[in-house]
Amino acid sequence: MRLAAKERLAFDALLLAIASAFSAEGRPGGDAAAVRLRAASKRPFYARPARDHPGALLRQVCALDNAIDCARLVLGCAASLDWEHWQGTGLAADVSNSLYTTELLGPDGHVRDDGVRVGLLVSEAGTDYPPSSHAAEETYFVIGGKAEWVLEGAPYGQVPPGSLVHHPAWAVHGRRTLSEPFLGAWRWSGNLDLASFGVVRR
Questions:
Q1: Residue 188, CB-side half-sphere exposure with 13 Å CA sphere
Q2: What's the pTM value of the predicted model, to 2 decimals?
Q3: Are the C-beta atoms of residues 127 and 176 closer than 8 Å to each other?
């Protein structure tokens, strides 16, 4: 499926904005993701019907006072993306139903790439995403909303929009939202096997 010109411009602008964020993190995985994101803006877009769609939730988080400019780029192409509820191993149904994700670039992405996964995640307020781990190195780019993050048993800490949150491969990490929803872009680098994800029982 070809995107209409306006939506493709928004999609490409989103890829470039995320590339700029990841190139600023100072890690090889971020640099590699940035290179692949910049190249993706010139490659074909593949689509499949969205199984779920964040709709009003996405508009709500993008309208928050703390949402950065990248939020409007997400809104500009959101209707063309194949959103779904993430159902990782051990993730409770109420948590899964409160968040939506889409892969922009990667093996299952709108632009195919076997070297990285890059996507978006939007989460309702009051969602406790439990401590989990996976084989991939991960970085989140916070676009809008307030969330608290935990890494390897340290205290939860709030991270403002515009920030990067890094999780080494297999590190136990979690995230919870309180009074506001959350929107972020994420990258997986290294081992991209989704089956490696698992909730860590407390």
A1: 25
A2: 0.96
A3: yes
